[in-house]
Every structure is written in C-alpha cells, then in structure tokens.
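Hello forum,

I keep getting stuck at the same step: I have a sequence, I want structure tokens, and every attempt I make locally crashes halfway through. Rather than fight my setup again tonight, could one of you with a working pipeline run this one for me? It's a single chain of 98 residues.
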Amino acid sequence: MLPGVYQAKKKDNTIYFRSSITYSGKHISLGSFDTEEKAHEAYLYAGRLLAGKEITLTSYKKENPVLSFSKWVSLINFRDNGIYIKTCLLYTSDAADD
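Reply #2:
Ran it on my machine without issues. Output:
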C-alpha cells in the first residue's frame, strides 16, 4: 500500500481507499477515493500544502487539487493558525441574505 493510504470495504464489500496524514501530532483524514493512486495523490498534495505557505486559499482553482475546498480551507487554517476544524462551514452570499 502506498504511504498515507489504507484499504477499506463498504457494507457491500466494495473496496475503496482512505487517505490520511499526520501533522503537528494531529491525525487528519483526507477522504475516500476510488483508487489507491488518487488517495496517495491526496496524501502527497496535503503534505505539500502543509509544508509551505506558497499554496494559499487563492491558489485553489489554479492548483486543481484532489482535495475538496473545505478540506483545503481546514488544512490551511491548521497550518497557519494551529486550529483544526474537522468540518469547514462555508457560506455563500445567498445564505447570508436569508
């Protein structure tokens, strides 16, 4: 198995791959993926994101990552502020008007 990846099974015995990384003593799940390679790609990308400040919130679309935007925000917040929020709440302008 590639680093950062482990195999799991759904209730119907379908195999999928989970990815995770440890940063500053915190175990962080990166998500579920159809292939071992995609899960490993998420692990490698999260490592690059956490290692340096050259990847920012504004570079999300340019980078075309395998990580969801909410995971991206959570990881950058943890990297820059030391606070990890498991589920990032995102608000749109429509939600703010309600």
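Residues 78 and 84 are 5 Å apart (CA to CA). If your local run keeps crashing, start a new thread with the error log.
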